[in-house]
Amino acid sequence: MPFADAARRSRSAGTNAEDALFVKDGYPVTFFFHLSVREGRDVLEQEITRHGGDLCEDEQQANVIIVDEEADIEHIRRRYYRSNVLWQQRVYIEPRDFVRRCISAGKYEHRPPSKKGMPGAPGRRVYGISRPLLCVDY
After folding, report:
1. What residue spans define the domains of the chain?
2. Up-side HSE of residue 74: CA atoms within 13 Å toward CB?
3. Cβ(79)–Cβ(62) under 8 Å?
4. Of residues 55, 46, 64, 52, the one with CA closest to residue 21
5. Which residues pair with 23 in a beta bridge?
6. Is residue 64 exposed (0-12), middle (13-18) or buried (19+ Cβ within 10 Å)?
7. Beta pairing class for 54-55 and 27-28
8. For the segment 9-61, what is each residue's pLDDT rounded down to a tens digit?
9. Strand pairing partners for 116?
10. Is 55:45 a contact under the CB 8 Å cutoff?
């Protein structure tokens, strides 16, 4: 695998420094297309490689998995982020317009998934020395 890393690093060094948008820690960011992405794939591939990114055929080697907007992206994200498999926890699941958003913003960044609380009523009040039990609370 060190040979593959060296090859990826040399490819990213060949691109212009100002065009190297999809580079993290000196290595090109690898993208994988989910099965839901069918149309516009060629254009996305060109944009990714033009801006320093790399494409892979194996989702285990990817840093970012691009999913079609029509797919249930939240379900796919939960499946990966809650997995016990380490490579699935470290991969980012992003919609197809993520590439264009990064290019127009001029930087590569992810929005972390929002944490949601447990559904249902909130828990009981805790009574202790600092808050005595009063009849008003009933």
Report:
1. 2-107
2. 3
3. no
4. 52
5. 28
6. buried
7. unpaired
8. 444 444 455 578 899 988 999 999 998 888 888 999 999 999 999 999 998 99
9. none
10. yes
| 138: amino acid identity, one letter | Y
For tokens 């079609």, the residue is 68
Distance, in Å, from the CA atom of 83 to the CA atom of 89, rounded to the nearest integer, reads 6
Paired tokens of 5: 């890393």
80 residue type, one letter: Y
**85 vs 28: CA distance, rounded Å:** 23
Give the β-pairing of 27-28 and 23-24.
antiparallel
- Residue 97 DSSP label: T
The CATH code of the domain at 2-107 is 3.40.50
Length of the chain in terms of residues written:
138
Helix, strand, or coil (residue 10): helix
